[in-house]
């Protein structure tokens, strides 16, 4: 029986992957580099310091990890208001979950401060019991630590928690934590492996998600 639902943030609730790709591309372009798909895929779903290190090492950048992060974040925040939007089906699913009185949480590799700012800006923050950011655990996704911590805070067993994720790394974390993992890929997730997930949905509005919740009542 599903007793709680947990959402990833980037690429699942918001189209922030679009913003990040553009910001990283704008950072690399003056340096003479193109942001490659293979690099982006390795970075997706990772904690910021890890994903930035991947970028630094791949392109042999002379800047420090902190300098790279700061510059990309500056570009990111400039672009954000122009193209940020909610992913398809989120409002529909949120209304269903609230109607079912299921506890909700957000578990993201991004910082909790950043996540709360995005959610509050769109009026969603109060819909969630809490937000667990990447800074809360030493080992980020694809390690299962964050989802095990979420289950503890929700006071439910992992198998009683539905986790919604868009990336391979996020799904690996949810699967290895023993949760009811649901993959919701977007256009940026081509080629991702969702082995072990209970189902793969087309969007957050996919009826299969609601059917799975009803079956487990």
Describe the structure.
The chain has two domains: about 5-15 and about 85-215, HAD superfamily/HAD-like (Rossmann fold); about 15-85, Orthogonal Bundle (DNA polymerase, domain 1), CATH 1.10.150.240. The chain is built from nine helices and six strands. The protein has about 220 residues and is an alpha/beta fold. Helix 1 (about 15-30) packs across helix 4 (about 65-85). It has helices spanning about 15-30, 35-45, 50-60, 65-85, 90-100, 110-120, 145-155, 170-175, 205-215, and strands spanning about 5, 105, 130, 160-165, 180-185, 200. Strands 3-2-1-4-5-6 form a six-stranded parallel sheet, with helices on both faces. Helix 8 (about 170-175) links the parallel strand 4 and strand 5 (about 180-185). Helices cover about 45% and strands about 10% of the residues.
Q: Which SSEs are present, and which pair or pack?
A:
Layout: E1 4-7, H1 16-28, H2 37-43, H3 48-59, H4 65-83, H5 90-99, E2 104-107, H6 112-121, E3 130-132, H7 145-154, E4 161-165, H8 168-176, E5 180-183, E6 199-200, H9 207-215
Helix pairs in contact: 1-4, 2-3, 3-4
CATH superfamily of the largest domain: HAD superfamily/HAD-like
In DSSP terms (H or I, runs of 4 or more residues), the helix count works out at 9
Give the neighbour order of strands across the main sheet: 3-2-1-4-5-6
Q: Gyration radius, to the nearest Å? A: 17 Å
Please estimate the helix content. Answer: 40-55%
CATH topology of the largest domain: Rossmann fold
């Amino acid at each position: 029986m599903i007793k709680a639902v947990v959402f990833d943030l980037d690429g699942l609730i918001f189209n922030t992957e679009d913003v990040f790709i553009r910001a990283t591309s704008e950072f690399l372009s003056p340096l003479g580099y193109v942001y490659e798909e293979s690099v982006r895929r390795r970075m997706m779903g990772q904690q910021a310091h890890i994903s930035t290190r991947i970028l630094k090492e791949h392109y042999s950048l002379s800047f420090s990890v902190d300098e790279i992060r700061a510059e990309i974040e500056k570009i990111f925040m400039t672009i954000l208001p122009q193209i940020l939007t909610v992913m398809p089906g989120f409002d529909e699913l949120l209304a269903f979950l609230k109607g079912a009185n299921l506890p909700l949480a957000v578990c993201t590799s991004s910082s909790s401060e950043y996540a709360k700012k995005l959610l509050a800006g769109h009026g969603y923050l109060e819909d969630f019991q809490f937000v667990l950011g990447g800074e809360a655990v030493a080992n980020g996704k694809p390690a299962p630590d964050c989802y095990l911590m979420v289950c503890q805070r929700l006071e439910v067993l992992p198998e009683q928690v539905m986790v919604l994720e868009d990336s391979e790394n996020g799904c690996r974390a949810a699967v290895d934590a023993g949760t009811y993992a649901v993959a919701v890929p977007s256009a940026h997730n081509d080629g991702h492996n969702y082995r072990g997930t209970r189902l793969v949905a087309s969007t957050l509005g996919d009826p299969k998600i609601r059917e799975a919740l009803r079956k487990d009542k």
